[in-house]
Write a structure and sequence with these properties.
This protein is α+β, with helices and mostly antiparallel strands. The protein has two domains: 2-35; 39-159, no CATH class. The chain is built from five helices and six strands; from the N terminus they run ααβαβββαββα. A six-stranded antiparallel beta sheet has the order 4-3-2-1-5-6.
Length: 165
C-alpha cells in the first residue's frame, strides 16, 4: 500500500511540474504577443509586405500583363489591392495588421519558407516580399502556394479589402 501511495505521489508531482512548465511557456508566448504595440507599428513609414501574383501558364504578353497584380500592406495599416479607387488604400483592422506583421516577422526570423516549394505545371506564382522597419527588402517566399495555409491566409486577409469584392 505504501508503495502505491508513493507511486501516485510521484506521478502527481511530475504532472504538476510538467503542467507548470507548459503554463509558463504559454504565458511567455502571450506576453510576447502583448509586447507588439499596434500603434507603434502604425508609426513606421513604408511598406510592410508586397505580394506580386504572376500567371505562370502559357499566355500572350497581353494576357501576362493583365494577370499580373500586386497586393500591398503598409505599416500604417492600409491595404492596396487591385480595384482600389484612385490607388487609395483601404484601412485594415488592427487584428489583420497584427496578423500580417507577425506573419512577416516570424517568417523572416525563422526562414519559414526556405525549403518550401510546390510542384505545379501552371497557374499563378506569388512573390512575398517583407520590408523590415529599416525599409530593407526580404523575400519570404517566391513560387506556387496553393497548398500552404499560412501563405493563402495572408493573401485572403489582404484580398478581403478589395473594394470590388
Amino acid at each position: 500500500m505504501k508503495k502505491l501511495v508513493s507511486i501516485i505521489l510521484i506521478a502527481v508531482m511530475a504532472l504538476s511540474i510538467f503542467g507548470c512548465s507548459i503554463t509558463g511557456e504559454r504565458r511567455d508566448r502571450d506576453k510576447k504577443k502583448e509586447r507588439i504595440d499596434i500603434e507603434e507599428i502604425k508609426d513606421i513609414e513604408g511598406d510592410l509586405l508586397v505580394i506580386t501574383r504572376v500567371s505562370a501558364g502559357d499566355c500572350t504578353i497581353e494576357q501576362y500583363e493583365a494577370s499580373r497584380y500586386t497586393l500591398r500592406v503598409t505599416y500604417s495599416g492600409y491595404a492596396y489591392v487591385p480595384g482600389s479607387l484612385n490607388g487609395e488604400g483601404v484601412r485594415m483592422s488592427d487584428k489583420d495588421l497584427r496578423t500580417i506583421y507577425e506573419f512577416c516577422v516570424n517568417s523572416y526570423e525563422n526562414d519559414a519558407f526556405e525549403d518550401y516549394s510546390e510542384q505545379v505545371c501552371d497557374g499563378s506564382t506569388y512573390s512575398f516580399v517583407y520590408y523590415d522597419e529599416d525599409g530593407d527588402a526580404h523575400t519570404l517566399y517566391s513560387g506556387y502556394c496553393y497548398s500552404n495555409k499560412d501563405l493563402q491566409n495572408v493573401i485572403d486577409i489582404i484580398s478581403y479589402y478589395c473594394i470590388d469584392g
